[in-house]
Amino acid sequence: MEINRVFAGFGGLFGAAGIAAYAAAAHSAEGHMATIAPILFIHAPAFLALSLLAKVSGPAYFGAWVLVLGLLFFIGDLVSRDVTGDRLFAFAAPLGGSLLILGWIVVAATAFPTLDFKRLE
Q1: Backbone angles phi, psi at 43, to 5 degrees
Q2: I need a labelling partner for 59 at 20 to 30 A (CA). Which of 53, 89, 99, 106 fits?
Q3: Where is the chain membrane-spanning (predicted)?
């Protein structure tokens, strides 16, 4: 069975980062790590599933990339606030959150074969 190795890699990295964030949250009551950890940890197995689905579904492939961008902006902004005390850039978290919502809606489109389109590689 062929997989999209990039998305499988993201799954592993998001899982590892989620565990690291849980550990950081356990050692500090301040900051955003308690918010970051479950978001990353929930998306880790999703990306492992998307590594399979993206090979056969255009919406899944596109949706996975939208999710990657959403996670990078949303989580990146929260980490930036903890580390530097400043935002990643203005509206990074709302943009990231919106991209996460959009990404999951696009992935949901995989349930409708009439909405499928050619893989974007």
Answers
A1: -80, -20
A2: 89
A3: 35-53, 60-76, 88-112
